Amino acid sequence: MVQAWYMDDAPGDPRQPHRPDPGRPVGLEQLRRLGVLYWKIKMFYEEHLHLDDEIRYILDGSGYFDVRDKEDQWIRIFMEKGDMVTLPAGIYHRFTVDEKNYTKAMRLFVGEPVWTAYNRPADHFEARGQYVKFLAQTA
């Protein structure tokens, strides 16, 4: 959860937390009223889908994209610096770093950026239905 507080007025190193005593915490609702939005980004290893294509370019490091095949089995795709992958809307997938424990990736969008991930089960979305239909046509 977000940690925010009113700062003390003490001079000194700006790298210090400058928490007053007693503390004066600030919550998400107060930040929202100021126009500040905050998200805690989930670990991408949880299986999910998106309603739009996911285009990822690996800027540095390496990791694995796991995608489901027609029989619902995992296929692991190794990705490293310079690799790009496009995952179609509606495909269940997940991502993890490899043993080097470092990946720097960029997500590319067509149109307005949409970051929403829908954890499985998410079969009720039209994008999932269209993807399942695509799979049936490629059999």
Molecular structure report:
This protein has about 140 residues and is of the alpha+beta class. It contains two helices and seven strands. The longest helix has 12 residues, at about 125-135. The chain is elongated, with a radius of gyration of 20 Å.
Helix and strand topology:
Elements lengths: L27 H6 L14 E2 L4 E15 L5 E7 L3 E4 L5 E5 L5 E6 L9 E2 L6 H12 L2
Antiparallel strand pairs: 1-7, 2-3, 2-4, 2-5, 2-6
Q: Report the sheet-strand fraction.
A: 25-35%
- The named CATH superfamily of the largest domain: Jelly Rolls
Proper CATH architecture of the largest domain: Sandwich
Average the pLDDT over all residues and give the rounded result. 91
- Give the tally of β-strands: 7
Coarse structural class: alpha+beta
Radius of gyration: 20 Å
> What is the overall shape?
elongated
Number of domains: 2
Uncertain residue ranges: none
Distance between the termini: 45 Å
The CATH class assignment of the largest domain is Mainly Beta
- Main beta-sheet annotation: 5 strands, antiparallel
Report helical residue fraction.
10-25%
In short:
By secondary structure, the protein is α+β, with helices and mostly antiparallel strands. The chain has two helices and seven strands. The longest helix has 12 residues, at about 125-135.
For the structure shown, list the relevant keywords.
alpha+beta, two-stranded antiparallel sheet, single chain, Jelly Rolls, elongated, 13% helix, 2 domains, 139 residues, five-stranded antiparallel sheet
